[in-house]
Amino acid sequence: MGRATTFYFTLLYLHLLSICWCQRSNPDSERLSCDRCDRRLSCNCSYGGFTSVPTVTDRALTLDLSFNEIAMVTEDDLKSHRHLKALNLHGNKLAVIHPSAFDSLWSLEELDLSNNQLTALKQKWFRKLGALQHLNLLNNPYRCLGSPAPFQTLVRLRRLRFGGPALEELKREDLYGVTQLEELTVHGNNLSRYEPGTLADVWPLGRVTLSLRSAFLTNTALARAVLEDVSYPETPIILEDLHLIGNESVQPLTAAAKRRIRQISLKNVSVSDEAIVSFLMVFNGVPLTSFWLDGVTLTGEGRWAQAKWTDQKSIDEFFLRNIVVLDVWKFVSLLELGFLLHYPRKVSVINGRVFVMPCPTSRLLVNLQYLDLSDNLLTEMTLSESLCDGHGTLKDLRVLNVSGNALKSLSTISRLVAELSKLTHLDISRNAYSSMPRACSWPSTLRYLNISGAKLETITPCLATTLEVLDLSNNDLKSFSLFLPALRELYLSGNKIQSLPSGWLLPNLQILTIQSNTLNMFGRSDLQSYERLQNLQAGQNKFVCSCEFVAFLQSDIKGGDVQLTDGEESYICDSPLYLQEEPVGQVYLSVVDCHRVLFVSVSCGVALFVAILLCILLWRLHVLWYLKMTWAWLKAKRNSRRRQRCREREGLESLLSFDAFVSYSEQDACWVDNFLVPELEEPRDNDEESVNHRPLTLCLHKRDFLPGHWILDNIMSAMERSRRTVFVLSENFVQSDWCRYELDFSHFWLFDRNAGGEVILILLEPLSKDDIPKRFCKLHKLMSSTTYLEWPQEEEKIGEFWRSLRKALRGEEEDY
Question: Got any disulfides in this one, which pairs (predicted)?
């Protein structure tokens, strides 16, 4: 039993080993493929449900594998991707990476391994990535960066992001080899051990983002040590995910204050009044120029007056976005914050649910040059209060942004800003304007105006003629016909415009953006009307790919003064139907498509020429005659068969009524009447031959054709009822149309009955076979193979002629 079990497991082991060997020898045998690559060789394989790295074209430059189920990267998965510049594996279940998995990615510049299951970082992963510049390792369950230092071979690294909920320790040698960074992000909310100086060797150091929530709350010394290592006057500091409750939570910032930093941002934080006061005291006299609060919850009531004695004169910019005041009704007046509002030149309060900034508060902003109140709840009434109804407030204001509010009247807006004598930029986009008044009063200094994202259907002379930049994107405009002599940039995307604006209305225009409209086409004449146009963006329209437009876009516009800066891939055919969704740059139109009139004219000319040649050929080969006679023959024969069936039903036999049907020309009727008929039909007493044989009966058309019947039927009937057909050939016969008909039918009759002896030829005058039309091939053959009778010129031979003729008609053998 034991031996059997051992033998069984041995066989099982060998079987599994063979399977593993087969899979190793052919690693792509069971791998899925991803073909979602665009023309720029950027492959987006995200959200594909892949459990392993799929096969992708070797020429890919960007590969996005984010949000899949990939758990492992093997040695061969990326082996052929030597040209890859960006690889994104964010949001997978990646736990194992082979030490040589990235060795072939010599050109890789960006690598994202964030949000996976990597429990340790290996230096071998990055040893061949000499070109790597951006590395993201956030939110993996590693507790430390590991040894040896994982980044020491990344000599070109400029952006590094690492850390996560599991990171507990940072040692000095962890960042060995990292000498300078443009951006550093460290997530250490649970960081408990930090060796001072770990981040100090990174210089120069650009923007730094730190998430040290627990350190700020429970280990201020650690937080202070980290801040001290990364704080430089030129380095912006961003602190994320903090709860600044009391004085102690702010103390780590003293390290940054001592290093006299100039820019600090708090992102996703909650702040109490005590923390704000403590913050202002910590930065008392520090040359802080920029203070940002993004995603901040104010838990207090705005009682910050305790810090009004602090020196905050250096603050040049306040930026507040996504601000939430928990108890807004208890929040004190901003008039108590005059010590903060006197100095800044830039103030932004974005998405703060602000419905009014009282006029007294506005008057405190004596140095204000830039004011951003976008995405709030302002109306014309509250904006009038904020601007003190235009009476001498905010005299130095140059830029005003009130986009994304509840404004509805352009005339009111223009009146409110008319007294802002230094205003150059005005953004009133994403409001509810539905119409534009005929006239408006704007500051004479206004150069930039943004009214995009409204509901305007027409434009009027309300727009200031001093404008240099005008943005009317995402409205309902159908045309643009306004003279703006100073305009340099015009943005009209997302409207319903069908043609380019006239260039003479915009003599100084340099940049025109008119994407996503109903533009069908444009050409050289449209662009030539612009004197200074340099950049044009007109893609994503409903282009009619005519020959002129395709030729213009593929060749004429290249090398010209105007450049298409939105890329050829933005120009897609909408019609004709067979070219729909095709890039204009790849369309090929034939001569038939592009020169239809010329093609039709040439085709008709060629067809006419061929038709003439064909007619000449048919005439030369007598094809028309053959067709005509075939049709007549078939019709006459059908009538003949009908008569035959009638006789059979009546019990009558098909009798031959005549010995011969005589075909002759009317001009030869005298010879027929005076010689042929008397000689053959009238008995002669002195003629020995008439004694033994009865007289012959002849069928003559003038005598025996039935009146009222179709002439061709008469000819056909005469031939059917005659034993022989006699052709009296002469020059007159050849020229006679009816004789030719009779000759023609005889020709068909000979073909049909395959009989040559039933035709007798009499030549009244010398006539060669060449005088007979060549199309009568059977008669030519008969004249070549059969002796024909010639009317003798000598008197003594006439008797012999009649004797021979009678014998031929009676079917007697004789060489005549």
Answer: 37-43, 359-388, 440-462
pLDDT at site 722: 83
Residue 488 has pLDDT above 90, yes or no: yes
Q: Is the same domain home to 565 and 517?
A: yes
461 and 497 share one domain: no
CATH number of the domain that 357 lies in? 3.80.10.10
Domain boundary among 588, 609, 632: 588
Rounded Cα distance between 475 and 496, Å, is 8
CATH number at residue 776: 3.40.50.10140
pLDDT score for 776: 61
481 and 427 inside one domain: no
User: Would the pLDDT of 36 be above 50?
Assistant: yes
Which residue, 542, 386, 511, 515, is CA-closest to 452? Answer: 515
Strand partners, 535: 511, 563
Contact (CB, 8 A) for 238 and 207: yes
Mean pLDDT of the chain: 85
- Considering the domain architecture, whether residues 373 and 402 belong to the same structural domain is answered as yes
Q: Are 209 and 238 a contacting pair, CB within 8 Å? A: yes
Residue 45 lies inside a defined structural domain of this protein: no
Q: Percent of the chain beyond pLDDT 90? A: 53
Residues 671 and 792 in one domain: yes
**Long-range CB pairs of 696-700, under 8 A, 24+ apart, other chains included:** 696/659, 696/660, 696/806, 696/809, 696/810, 697/657, 697/658, 697/659, 698/658, 698/659, 698/660, 698/661, 698/662, 698/726, 699/657, 699/658, 699/660, 699/661, 699/662, 700/662, 700/672
Q: Which range of residues forms the domain containing residue 803?
A: 660-683+694-809
Q: What is the pLDDT of residue 11?
A: 43
Of 21-30, 55-64, 599-608, 805-814, give the range with the top mean pLDDT. 55-64
Length, in residues, of the chain:
816
Structural domain contains residue 799: yes
Domain count, the chain: 3
| Statement to judge: residues 673 and 789 lie in one domain | yes
In this structure, the answer to whether residues 438 and 513 fall within a common structural domain is: no
Sign of the dihedral through C-alpha 157, 158, 164, 170: positive
CB 101 within 8 A of CB 84: no
**Residue 102: partners with Cβ closer than 8 Å, 6 or more residues away:** 78, 108, 111, 125, 126, 128, 129
> Measured in whole angstroms, how far is the alpha carbon of residue 464 from the centre of its chain?
38
282 found inside a domain: no
Q: What interhelical angle do 623-649 and 737-753 show, nearest 10?
A: 70
Distance CA(117)–CA(112), nearest Å, equals: 13
Helix axes 777-785, 737-753, angle to 10 degrees: 80
Neighbours of 197 (CB within 10 A): 12
Per-residue confidence band for 23, with pLDDT thresholds at 50, 70 and 90: very low
| 546 in the same domain as 482 | yes
